[in-house]
Each structure stands twice: as structure tokens, then as C-alpha cells.
Amino acid sequence: MRLKFYFLFTFFTLLFLFYPGDSYYFHIFAYNRDLFNKKGAVSNLKILPVPYLKSAYYPEVSAEAIYVVDLPSFTPILETNKKQRFLPASTVKIITALVAYDVYKLNQIITVKKTISEGQLMDLNLGEKITVENLLYGTLVHSGNDAAYVLADNYGYDKFIDLMNKKASQLKMINSHFIDPSGLKETNQYTTPFDLALAARELLKNPYLAKIVSTKEIIISDVDFKHFHKLSNVNQLLGEIQGIGGLKTGYTEAAGENLVSFYKKNGHQFLIVLLKSQDRFQDTRNVIEWINNNVEYLNPKS
User: Fold this and answer.
1) Which residue among the candidates 90, 176, 182, 261 is catalytic per the annotation?
2) Which of 15, 89, 92, 233 is placed for a possible disulfide with 250 were both Cys, Cβ 3.0 to 4.6 Å?
């Protein structure tokens, strides 16, 4: 028992030296001090495997900002400009989907009264009656700006935007601000790689939304089967790279190419956030190759 205590003490000491920041282990110690005052609490503590780098080389990427984390522990393994503000483009729709899931029922039927025609669209028709579930597919799979707009407008546009920013605040996305549900607007709208990782983590906690973002292609219809919409995921890596399970693309000319990816390998899970890239898909391929070749895990139980 004493030997185990000394091992854990040494392990966490080294952990703080090499993994500072807002990680799983930091929160255990910072916010659960009473846990360690209880007899036997340390021995019952669940310790997650710790990622480390085998070498000091880094992947070649064009993105101006990158944030890669081990998802279960939220331990960063690669970061550049992680808290610098960037235009989010359609990565905003992660928050749009989270708010829509909160305020609607999936089988709730919405009548399309107004829509928009800018950028990527699922081509909704005025008067079309469609479920919230299918609008979420249009928002997250096809990145339909019209689908995101209809979700916000039907609830009350300004109220919906207010809820988006409240959701961001709840998730501690302190360097993010949103003014439209699609990401088209570029004035007073911003986020960071770190904040997007927080949003992506929250989305993946929801099994239903996690299933949607991993969908490569689907055909959905309105409730009367008059209008059918073929939705193709903008993320080219889905189906190309084993282990990629979504998550959300984004692009405007000013924002550049953005991509938030969920990646699984050998039982480990990663979030990869790239902002203002010149080639988001190639950048992500390079990061995944780097993860496969350079990230190992220390298991404290071994």
C-alpha cells in the first residue's frame, strides 16, 4: 500500500511538470481536494493512460492554429496559437446543433417560413415541413446554412443566438462569440482552437449528435415526402481514413479552411482542431500520421 502511494505521488508530480494546463489530471487535484483527504481514496482513483511523444518532430501543416488533445483526459499533445481568436466559419454549427438539441424535440416538425441562399445549402423550400432531426442532419452532415438558419429562426432568431453564446459560456469557451448560426458573418464573431475542442467534446458526449457527424451520406425528406434532400458530408476524410468519425468543417474566404476532427486509434481517442488552413484535409492527414508514429501512452497500472 505504501509503495503504491509513493508511485502515485511520483507519477502525479511528473505529470504536473510535463502536462500543465486545463487537463483531466489538473481538475482532479484542483477541484477534488476532499477526495484525497479520505482514507483509501487515492487507491480507488481511476487513472487514465497518459500520452507522451516519442520524438520532438512535428507534423507539417499549413494551418495557422492547431490543437490536438487526447480526448478522455483532455491532455494536449500538439498546440499552436490555441487561444488566438479566428473566424469560425461553419464550425459554429457545433454550437448551433447543441442548442437546437436543447430547445427542440427531434421529431418536432418545423415549417420553413424563411430561408437563406448563401453558401452551402441543403436547398430547403418555402412551406416545406421537416423534422428537427432532419434539419440537424442538414446542418452537421451537409453543413447547410439554410438548415442552421431555419433552426434558429423558428425558435426566435435573436433568442437562439443568445442561447448559443450562453452555451459557449457554460462550456468555458471564454474566447468565443457568435452572431449567426451558420458562421457566414465575419464581424464580431470569433473562436479559438481550444474553445472548439471544448465544443466538440460536448457534442461527442451526445451519442445522437455523434452519430450524425459521422454520417458520410444520407437522403432525407420532408414529412410529406414531396421534397428529398441528398446530404453529403463535406469532410472528405470520412471513409478515407480509418478511425475518422467526423466532426465539422468550416470555410469562408476570410476564415480559410477550418476542420475539427474526431479520430480513434488502438482504443485511444483524439480531437484535432485546425484553423485557417490552406489545405485542411492534407493537414489533418499529416497530423494523423504524426499521431500514429509519434504518440505513445504510459499506463500507470502497468
Assistant:
1) 90
2) 89
Pick the catalytic residue from 143, 182, 214, 277.
143
Same domain, 171 and 102: yes
40 and 93 in one domain? no
- Active-site residue flag, 55: no
**What cell numbers appear for 48 in the block?**
487514465
- Active-site residue 232, yes or no? no
| Look-up of cell digits 441562399 | 117
Q: Pick the residue with more confidence: 43 or 119? A: 119
Contacts of 186 (CB under 8 A, 6+ apart): 87, 252, 254, 255
| Active-site choice (23, 73, 93, 176) | 93
User: Residue ranges for the binding site for substrate?
Assistant: 248
Report, as an integer, the average pLDDT of 148-163: 98
Does the active-site annotation cover 117?
A: no
Residues 7 and 133 in one domain: no
Q: What angle, 0 to 180 degrees and rounded to 10, lies between the N-to-C axes of helices 93-103 and 193-204? A: 40
In the annotated binding site, the residues are 248
pLDDT at 11 over 80: no
Question: Domain range spanning residue 14?
Answer: 1-47
Same domain as 290, residue 147 = yes
Over residues 227-254, the pLDDT tens digits come to 999 999 999 999 999 999 999 999 999 9
